[in-house]
Structure formats: C-alpha cells, structure tokens
User: Fold this.
Amino acid sequence: MRLSSAACLTALAAVLLGGCAAQDPGREVTFENREARSDAALIAAGDADSLQAAALLGDLADDRAQRLRLIQRAVTAAPDRPDIAWSHLQLCLRVESCDPQPIEAHLHALDPGNGAAWSATLERSWKRKDTAALQATLVAISNSERFGIYWNQTIVHVANAVIRTRAMEPKGAFVEAIGAAAARWTPYKAVTDFCQGPSLKQPDVLATCRRLSAVLRRGDTYLTEMVGLVLAMRVWPESGAEYHAAADEKRVAQYRTDTDDRLNTRKGLDNAWAQSHLALMAAHDTEQEVVLAEITNAGLNPDPPPDYRSRWRR
Assistant:
C-alpha cells in the first residue's frame, strides 16, 4: 500500500540523514543540537504556529504533559484554527488524564463537517473494546461530509515556524514537519476492523460502512482516500456501479502518485524544492490537489494511459 508522496519523501530523507549519522557521529550530535535550538526558539517566539511546532516536534514520550501544555497555549493564541485544534486533540490522546470531549466539541464547532473530530472518542472506545461506543462513534463519522486531518496546513505552519527560527534549513524543517504530521493517530484500523466479515451481513452495519467509505474518500490525504476506496470495494458488490467507480478512482490515484513520486525523485530534496513545495501546499487544501498541480505544472497528463494497471489491491 502506498501511503503518500510526502511519506515517501520522509522515508528517503530519514535514510539519507541516518546514513550520514552512521558515518559521522558528530553530524548526529549537530542535528540533535539544531533540534534543541529550534525547540527553544519556537517556545520563546510564543506565537500560535511556533507553539504548535514545538508541541508536535518534541519527543512525546519524553514529556507528554509539557507538549500538551504547549498546544493548549497555541489554542489560546489562535482559537479559530481547526488545524491547531486537531493537533490539540491528537496530543490529548497521549495523556490519559486529558478529557478529549471539550476538544472534540471545539473542533466540531470550527469544522462541523469533518468526521475526524471524533477521532479521540473512536480511538479510546476501540482500545477499550467498548462495542456500543465504537459503533455509535462510527455512525457519527459516517454522517459527516469528509475526513480531514489538516495535512497540508499542519506541515506548512510547522515547517515555516521552524524555518523562521533559522535553526534548520528549509529542507530539514520540511522533513521534520512531515514526520510530525504523519505521527498523528488516525482511526483507519478501527474502521477496517469494524467493516469486515460477518458483521457486514447486518443491514445497519453495512449501511454505516458504505457511508464511511464515502466520507473517507473525501479525505485530504491519499492514505485516507485509499482506505475509503478499499472499504468501498469491500462493501459494494463487484458487479455494481459503486464498486467499479471505486476501482477507477483507485487506478487514477495510483497513477498520479506514481507519476508525482518520479517527478520529485528527479528534482531531489533540497532547500529550493522544499520552499516551493511548501508554497504549493499553502495554496491547496489537500494532498491530492498538490499532486495534481505538480503533474499539470510539469506538462504531464494527470490521467492514466489505457494500459496502466493499479498496484493497489482490495
């Protein structure tokens, strides 16, 4: 399963950075020092973007309560920012004493059509094996318009905040921001576990799962869309129009992400590319829109040729 263009870039950067550290321990120390300077500078800056970046980029296992306090300060500084409310919800999940319900209510108020606002309740009911709460939460998500994790917005705000500290070059800040955004919990496993096997023979479960597939297909990342597509091909009969529409969408998505990966591999990850990519992400709400823009800007056809076959499987 392909995760996303950004995830592939993160993996590549991690390999490159890891290789340098293995060859020269001094470079690893220098990189850690840069991270420490960046963290201190972000906290000192005190604006919403900097506080969000400090909260997300820190080692959550090191001091989760401190990270939660930082993101709470960011919410206070920018109470109308849904991407910061989403980060607040995610960090709350890592502190057992944190009550996610007021945070979920805040995110619902800011972005009422986004099913992702139910993520904390979903995760906790799934982990506690509370079947009734799990099903009720999935029904609520299935009645949403879409499922957005504020991927582009989070990366842009966090990376630019780090760049402003001058503690890291743009390419390093970009990779750090992607890692922070990718580390958040998303409820895909809970959804796919619920929507499988004999339970799909129950009409109410099947109806919920069909709605969930549609909501996820309107996500703001390719990974979310992919889960929705796989789910659609599980809950609709292979002979039906819905199944074939999902298969066609999957084929187009795979072609576009393959094409975009080849484009970015040729360009390489440098400071100029990182800054131009951040600008492109700032101009679009979803990862899918960014990929489409990159393909069309390169003068390439965004639609697959007749002989192209998707590698994604049901």
